[in-house]
Specification:
Mean pLDDT: 95
Order of helices and strands: EEEHEEEHHHEHEHEEHH
Subcellular location: Cell membrane
Bound molecules: adenosine-5'-diphosphate, magnesium ion
Number of helices: 8
Distance between the termini: 33 Å
Radius of gyration: 18 Å
Family: Belongs to the ABC transporter superfamily.
GO cellular component, one term: plasma membrane
Organism: Wenjunlia vitaminophila
Helix content: 25-40%
Structural class: alpha/beta
Keywords: Amino-acid transport, ATP-binding, Cell membrane, Membrane, Nucleotide-binding, Transport
Length: 241
């Protein structure tokens, strides 16, 4: 995944500017930064969900999105998980996971159901496949949402503060699933405030302020020895909590 000169504006105001980000396959990148820094917008640009004001996004050798053009549909090749799980309330966990493969990839229903169960097993929810979202904790719902994204067999997973809506006990189980994914060789970009996850599971940390990437390096370097004073202040604040 390669973003070059990436810029995104709302109502003429630049929200993301001059972002250069190249993520090789298999890498796990944690994106940190204060609220309003443009992290979510950058992620949406990378996923082809926002028109670009400048620059381009390339994914697996093709231009996914460029300024002035309409983003190309990537099907499920880029999976996205948000803070809000957005499961269909009237469908069971397994049905939520099987829906897109049947609709978008035309996978036979039987096969989709088997795949859904295998994926729910993988995220530790094998026993809950037939439960409805209201019967599941927030952490369980978020793991269903991850399984749902994985059902489209993505080659890149984008997470936008996947644990911000969760209590600490449920945060842990979601982070464990994400760590598994990272370890399995998936390419992962995750916006998070979980410093331990960034330290232990990310190969690389990017720090954003005012729509720009101001630090980009190995987690061990950015988290312990950032170049910028404002990164240091942010980290002190996060770690002090
Ligand atoms: N759809 C939108 N329309 C207008 N402004 C937006 C929209 N989405 C985000 N913004 C603005 O863009 C800036 C960056 O937002 P965001 O990408 O959500 O930051 P972060 O995820 O780092 O908190 C904020 O000032 C926000 O108000
Ligand atoms: Mg955000």
């Amino acid at each position: 995944m390669q973003a070059t000169g990436l810029g995104c504006s709302y109502h003429g105001r630049a929200v993301v500017s001059d972002v250069e980000l190249s993520v090789p396959a298999g890498q796990t990148v944690a994106v940190l930064g204060p609220s309003g820094a443009g992290k979510s917008t950058m992620l949406r640009c990378l996923a082809g969900l926002e028109p670009l004001h400048s620059g381009s996004v390339r994914f697996q050798g093709e231009t996914l999105s460029r300024a002035g053009g309409r983003p190309r549909s990537v099907g499920g090749r880029i999976g996205m998980v948000f803070q809000q799980f957005n499961l269909f309330p009237h469908l069971s966990a397994a049905q939520n996971v099987a829906l897109a493969p049947v609709r978008a990839r035309r996978l036979p229903k039987k096969q989709a159901r088997a795949q859904a169960r295998a994926l729910l097993d993988r995220v530790g929810l094998g026993e809950h496949a037939d439960h409805y979202p209201y019967e599941l904790s927030g952490g369980q719902q978020q793991r269903v949402a991850i399984a749902r994204a994985l059902a489209m067999e993505p080659e890149l997973m984008l997470f936008d503060e996947p644990t911000s809506a969760l209590d600490p006990e449920f945060t842990r189980e979601v982070l464990a699933v994400m760590r598994d994914l990272a370890d399995s060789g998936m390419t992962v970009i995750v916006v998070t405030h979980e410093m331990n996850f960034a330290r232990q599971s990310a190969d690389r940390v990017v720090f954003m302020v005012d729509g720009r990437i101001v630090e980009d390096g190995p987690a061990s370097v950015v988290l312990t020895n950032p170049r910028q004073e404002r990164t240091r202040r942010f980290l002190d604040q996060m770690l002090g909590e």
